[in-house]
Amino acid sequence: MKKYPCPSCGAEVRFQSSASVFAVCQYCKSTLVRRDLNLEALGKMADLQDDVSPLQIGTTGRFRGEFILLGRVKVKYEDGFWNEWFVRFDDGREGWLAEAQGFLMLSLPVEVPPNLPAATAIHPGLVVPIGKTEFTVQDVKKVTYAFAEGELPFPAPQGFQGVSIDLAAGSDDFASLSYGDKGDVDVFRGQYIEFADLHLQNLKAIDGW
Amino acid sequence: MVGESPSPNSGVASFTCQGCGAAVEIRAKGLTVTAVCSACGSISENDNGLFKIVQKAEGLLKIKSRIALGTKGKLFGQIYQVIGFMQRYDEVYPEDPWDEYLLYNPYLGYCWLAESDGHWTQYKPTKTTPKPLAGDFQFLNETYKVYHRGKAVVAFVIGEFYWQVRLDQKVDTLDAICPPHSLSREASSDEVVWSLGTYVEAKTIEDAFHPNPMPRQHGVAPNQPAPTQGLGGVWMVWAWTLILLFCVQLFLGGVRSQKPIIGLDVNATVPGASDVEVATFTTQGSATHVTIDVSANVNQSWATVGLRVVPEEGSKGPEHNFEKDISYYSGYDSDGSWSEGSTSAEFLINSLPAGKYRVLISGTPDPGHSVVISSKIIIAPSVWSNFWLALFLISLPPIWLGLRSRGFERSRWSNSEYNPYPQATGGSSDDD
């Protein structure tokens, strides 16, 4: 773990993952980018539109290894929002726990398959092979980042625009393609998972529940 | 325009309806996309945390949700809160709408509770796509039969939803059933959503969510489990009983496989022959069935035949006494030949204890006639009649249940365009 003083308020900012390059100061909400030995303030993160997620930074869980949630991006699309939680496993694997309309998807980055079509050529129903599995495109969403907190492995300025594509195969196989605004693409693969199967600890208490 | 006013640590926020000024509660903060005012029915949409009106209501709300929004209840061990209510109808049957409640739990996500004709089904969205197979659908190793395809139209809506809801919005629907489960497919232009439904007993809903008024139940729901769903078990018991019965039969058969014993002939003339011992036989096993066929050469005459089966000294069984008239007449008249009576009679003794027995025959013929009485003793040949009787008796319950189940299945499918049963003409329908 690395610790830096926030260039804006001086509070301690921690990076638990060496892959993290971006963080939001939990005290002054400055958005910070890690450069070699210090942090650079980019601006301020807007307030979070209140939500009722039981997940929070520091929530731990167990699914083929122990993990902890280090950061999150709240992704906005035409019909609403979903959360992408940056997950770090004890053995160093890093991935994402997506939380969308009551569904949870846990996925890890995989190699970009050859001949992956451009975002504009992808539509629901298209079959995309990832590894040895044929995935079917479920939906194609234009997304922006509405909010971020904690630490993240990429700079997540508000206003980023991209395309997020969900794919499914078999009974619970899940994959997603994330196209950035510069044509770059990341591919993630994992599965749909039940809340109880994640054995989550340190959840946020929600009044009345 | 008023934004959500978050109250710290509370799951609930609210905004002011731009249609009527009433406060609209938001229970799934950050997830709710559409919120419909319970007071006036105006539809608002979440735009970066601010709810803006998109469809203003006209007139008063005519429909009331049977379950109050905000009600929490336990379903299959999990607590859910009712946050939205919707009434929809099939395009073809606008007079026959059904109710749907959107249920929410911040840990478990969303599910639906649908009510139609007083029957309740819980639906959970699933990401596993059922596989089409020969007109049916295959899902988690179960086969679902297609029940209905149609278009569902939104007739009425209040509360909050996680997608954009509008009145008169239409989706293509497909329902397939495998009671108590059902699969629902809803397809719009840009997405396909599958949900897995499970039938819920009305009593469970009444206790959990206190609908007011509780809808009266009628008809059979497509995914209602049959009261005879344990039928497989009944047939299993039937099959085992049959096997047991058969084994008993074979065992008894082994005991009885003695050759029939031919008794001595008895010559009887008036005034009659008193008891003549014609044969002796021995039985093993505790309850042997004995049949004695007696024939007399009567012709245009009759004879009274007496039969006694008497245990020999040392045998314990009871004595059996029979008497029968044997007569045979025949002739010709204007209608041709006729005959009456028979030259033989059958005597049955059930459950004869093991032992040695003597068979005694006496005979009294028609005055002026003499008669020869012959006899044949068959040990345990009549057990099969008991077998068939037992088979019939053990078959009654499964047959009765089967008929009941068939009636239930007919009712279940009576509202489906995929009804596998021939339509009964003039039969009553379950429609109201």
Structural features, described:
The complex is a heterodimer of chains A (209) and B (432). Chain A has 209 residues and is mainly beta. Chain A has two domains: 2-44, Rubrerythrin, domain 2, CATH 2.20.28; 60-196. Helices cover 0% and strands 54% of the residues of chain A. Chain A has no helices and 15 strands. Chain A has strands at residues 2-5, 12-15, 22-24, 30-35, 38-44, 60-62, 66-77, 80-89, 94-100, 103-110, 127-130, 133-152, 161-169, 173-179, 185-193. In chain A, the strands form two sheets. Chain A has an eight-stranded antiparallel barrel. In chain A, strand 8 (80-89) and strand 9 (94-100) form a beta hairpin. Chain A is globular and about 50 Å long. Chain A starts with a strand and ends in a 16-residue tail after the last strand. The mean pLDDT of chain A is 90. By secondary structure, chain B is α+β, with helices and mostly antiparallel strands. In chain B, 15% of the residues lie in helices and 48% in strands. Chain B has three helices and 26 strands. An eight-stranded antiparallel β-barrel of chain B has the order 7-8-9-10-16-15-14-13. In chain B, strands 17, 18, 20, 24 and 26 form a five-stranded antiparallel beta sheet that branches. In chain B, a hairpin with a 2-residue loop joins strand 12 and strand 13. In chain B, helix 2 (231-256) packs antiparallel against helix 3. The radius of gyration of chain B is 40 Å and the shape is rod-shaped. The model of chain B is unreliable at 1-9 and 426-432 (pLDDT under 50). The chains are: A mainly beta (209), B alpha+beta (432). The interface between A and B is medium-sized, with 32 and 36 residues.
